[in-house]
Amino acid sequence: MGHKNDEELRRDLSEAQVRVQIGGRYRHYKGQAYTVVGFTVIEATDGIGVLYQADYTGLEGIVFLRPLQEFLSSVDTDEGRVPRFALVP
After folding, report:
1. End-to-end Cα spacing for the chain
2. Of 1, 17, 40, 86, which is least packed with CB atoms within 10 Å of its CB?
3. Rounded to whole angstroms, how far apart are CA atoms 69 and 56?
4. Each residue of 32-78: pLDDT tens digit?
């Protein structure tokens, strides 16, 4: 399997920016707050990754990477199905 070409990667990154706000503050379903700092291409899969920084005591400033589809996914909780990350208004 070959890698995506530059046009395909740029399209995927552009589409990600429509779905997730760079600089946006998101709350993880477990309660912690994060700020999205950017996107990346996951070289092994050509998937798009979301880079987000912890905004809470103990991990403040640490940057994490999660595949876009997982970032946008929902999870089952005792209260029902909720977004994994929700934009804080």
Report:
1. 41
2. 1
3. 24
4. 999 999 999 999 999 999 999 999 999 998 999 999 999 999 999 99
Determine the Cα–Cα distance for residues 85 and 10; give it in Å rounded to an integer.
Answer: 24
**pTM assigned to the model:** 0.92
Long-range contacts of 27-31 (CB under 8 A, 24+ apart): 27/85, 27/86, 27/88, 28/84, 28/85, 29/75, 29/77, 29/82, 29/83, 29/84, 29/85, 29/86
Is residue 85 within 8 Å of residue 75, measured between CB atoms?
no
- Asked whether residue 1 carries a pLDDT value surpassing 80, the answer given is no
